[in-house]
Structures are given as structure tokens and as C-alpha cells.
């Protein structure tokens, strides 16, 4: 649909840049952009609750962000009936869908889709303030001593002209010093540290991108090769066992039909084999995902380098920047409490920093 395709793409881009589904809905409503319900009403004359169905809402946005049709795939058999007597429709589990891949021209690129769904899985969803503000680092900060998330709070300055935010260990804020001690740090200090580190890394990459990329790939290729072989060996064994279980289930059925096996024993065997088979299928899917991630090392490195270079002269830290580059930021305790220098460890999604440290030596 040429009319709605730009809206769909914009929704994905807004979410990928850190805008929440609720805020996306508010933006579209404020701009008077027709919702799916309103379009259906205008085009097909569908009746319903006009005042509600014609507005964007958070649920609609979330549904669209998970709709694989936008990347060119066609899902089928998504619903079934409760029974042959009860024809009420109910949704099937996603694993039971029949999907035709690359069925039509996609609206959304695979890269944008992956970015959106990486954000969905991210530990760093972030908390809003009452005014709707989400700090760029909210959800990324971790206490170095207890592992809990750092929580943000704030207060107005003495002239009431600016609101000052700071972070502290969530466990300490909730239970006091019984379980963990204060890790208080002004938000501005953290922003400067993280932004400075990103700029410095970007500068080093720009000056020597080719050799940094080659060294990263060389280091990871050795590790990836060992990992891939181990995963492939494990997958081969599990697939073989899955095939064997299918054969055993078939034999149990045949023995029951021939009267060679009592019904209760047959059911027990089939249940046992089926349970093991389901467990193996889950493990196989997890291993295949891990294998895919391991083989995508070069692609991940190239994308990370592209993202870092964008922020060579970034004036400020943004939510989008954090989503693209950061895995977490580990914040150490105050020197007056720990008796040692405070540490701030920035962990990136791709460990380019290990290559940079190696080159500096």
C-alpha cells in the first residue's frame, strides 16, 4: 500500500531510535495520520466504535512492530477452531504458523527489523520520568558490586532553573546499606564519560579502520571456528537422536496396533519419547540461533564500525546512540566508601575495544 508504507517505515524508525510505542501513537494522533481502524472505516465502511477505532494506540504499534509481513514474509494458519463442534477461533502459537518466506516486496529492511527487535530484547527499556523523559543511559547502568540496575532520581537546582538527575544502586535505594552501599553518580558525569569514550573510539577507528577491522576479524575467526565446530557436532548428535525418537514413536504405535504392547505402556513410551523430542527441538533451535550469531561476526563488526563513525563529532549522548553501541555500563562505588579509585566499565555490543587496546600496546 503506497499510502501507508511510509507510515509503517516511520513507526519502525521511531522505535529503533528509542521512541516508545505509546509516544509513537501520540505523535501519529497529533499529526492526524489515519490509523488502521480509520482507514478500514474510510475504505470499506466497517462499523465499530468510531471515536476509539480511529485513533492510534500502543497495542496497534506493538502489533505492527511484530508483523513479519513488513519484511516480505507471509504468515498463514495463524488461527484454529477450539474443536470440530466449537467453531470459536483462537490464535495458534507462533511456532505452529506456516510461513512463506520472501513472498513479496518488503516495506522494512532486514537491518531495520533486526534493530527494532534487538531493542525489544534489550535489557535497557528505560524508565520514564513523570514528564515523559527517558535518560539516554536509563536501563544500561549496572552496579559493579551487587549487579542490580542503577535507578535515576533528581531534584531542581538552587535557582530552580534546571533539573539535575543522578543515578544510584537500585538495591541500595530500596533496602539501604544492608544489602549494598551507595553508588551515587551525577547523570551529567556519566554522559560525559560515555560520550567521550565513544568519540575517542570513533577517532581511532577513522584513523586506522582497515587494520582494526582485519585484526578484529582475525581474533574472532579463531574463536568462531572452534565454536562453530562444537555447535555443529552437537547439532548433528541431537538431530540424529530426534530422528531416532521419531522411529521409536512409530514402532510403539505399530506394536500397539499389532497387539504386541499394552495400551498403557505404549502411551507411556510415546509420552516419554515425545517429551525428549520436544526438549531436543528447543535445544536445536537455540543452537542454530547461536550458530547463526557466531557466523555473523564480520557483519556485526562492520555494522558496529559504521555506527561508531556516525558519532565522531556527536554533540551529546542520545538514546539511539546507546541502543546501537552499548551492552551495559558497570558503575563502581565511591572512593570514600570502597577506599579505591572509582571504575566505570563501558561494555560495547561488539568488542572492538580489545583490538584497540592490543594495537596501543
The total of helices stands at 14
Helix content: 40-55%
Q: How many distinct domains? A: 3
Low-confidence segments: none
| Percentage of residues in DSSP E strands | 5-15%
What is the N-to-C order of secondary-structure elements (H for helix, E for strand)? HHHHHEEEEHEEEHEHHHHHEHEH
* Largest sheet features: 3 strands, mixed
Structural class: mainly alpha
Give the mean pLDDT. Answer: 81
* Rg over C-alpha atoms, rounded to the nearest angstrom: 26 Å
Q: Give me the count of strands.
A: 10
Summarize the structure in words.
The chain starts with a helix and ends with a helix. The protein is mainly alpha-helical. It has three domains: about 5-120, Hect, E3 ligase catalytic domain fold (Alpha-Beta Complex); about 140-210 and about 300-360, no CATH class; about 220-295. The radius of gyration is 26 Å and the shape is globular. The protein contains 14 helices and ten strands.
Amino acid at each position: 500500500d503506497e499510502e501507508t508504507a511510509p507510515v509503517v517505515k516511520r513507526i519502525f524508525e521511531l522505535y529503533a531510535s528509542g521512541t516508545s510505542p505509546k509516544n509513537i501513537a501520540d505523535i501519529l494522533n497529533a499529526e492526524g495520520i489515519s490509523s488502521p481502524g480509520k482507514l478500514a472505516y474510510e475504505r470499506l465502511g466497517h462499523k465499530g466504535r468510531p471515536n476509539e477505532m480511529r485513533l492510534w494506540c500502543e497495542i496497534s504499534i506493538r502489533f505492527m512492530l511484530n508483523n513479519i509481513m513488513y519484511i516480505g514474509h507471509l504468515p498463514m494458519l495463524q488461527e484454529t477452531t477450539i474443536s470440530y463442534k466449537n467453531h470459536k477461533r483462537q490464535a495458534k502459537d507462533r511456532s505452529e504458523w506456516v510461513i512463506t518466506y520472501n513472498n513479496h516486496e518488503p516495506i522494512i529492511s532486514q537491518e531495520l527489523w533486526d534493530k527494532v527487535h534487538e531493542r525489544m530484547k534489550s535489557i535497557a527499556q528505560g524508565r520514564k520520568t513523570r514528564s515523559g523523559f527517558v535518560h539516554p543511559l536509563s536501563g544500561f547502568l549496572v552496579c559493579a558490586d551487587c549487579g542490580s540496575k542503577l535507578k535515576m532520581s533528581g531534584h531542581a537546582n538552587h535557582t530552580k532553573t534546571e533539573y539535575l538527575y543522578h543515578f544510584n544502586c537500585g538495591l541500595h535505594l530500596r533496602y539501604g546499606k544492608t544489602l549494598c552501599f551507595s553508588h551515587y553518580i551525577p547523570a551529567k558525569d556519566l554522559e560525559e564519560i560515555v560520550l567521550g569514550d565513544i568519540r575517542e573510539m570513533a577517532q581511532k577507528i577513522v584513523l586506522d579502520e582497515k587494520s582494526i577491522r582485519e585484526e578484529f576479524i582475525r581474533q574472532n575467526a579463531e574463536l568462531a571456528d572452534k565454536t562453530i565446530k562444537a555447535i555443529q557436532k552437537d547439532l548433528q548428535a541431537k538431530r540424529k537422536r530426534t530422528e531416532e525418537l521419531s522411529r521409536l514413536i512409530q514402532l510403539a504405535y505399530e506394536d500397539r496396533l499389532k497387539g504386541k504392547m499394552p495400551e498403557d505402556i505404549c502411551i507411556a513410551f510415546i509420552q516419554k519419547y515425545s517429551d525428549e523430542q520436544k526438549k531436543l527441538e528447543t535445544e536445536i533451535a537455540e543452537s542454530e540461533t547461536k550458530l547463526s550469531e557466531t557466523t555473523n561476526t564480520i557483519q556485526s563488526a562492520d555494522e558496529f564500525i559504521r555506527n561508531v563513525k556516525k558519532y565522531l563529532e556527536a554533540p551529546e549522548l542520545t538514546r539511539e546512540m546507546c541502543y546501537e553501541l552499548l551492552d551495559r555500563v558497570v558503575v563502581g562505588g565511591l572512593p570514600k566508601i570502597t577506599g579505591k579509585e572509582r571504575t566505570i566499565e563501558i561494555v560495547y555490543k561488539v568488542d572492538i575495544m580489545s583490538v584497540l587496546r592490543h594495537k596501543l600496546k
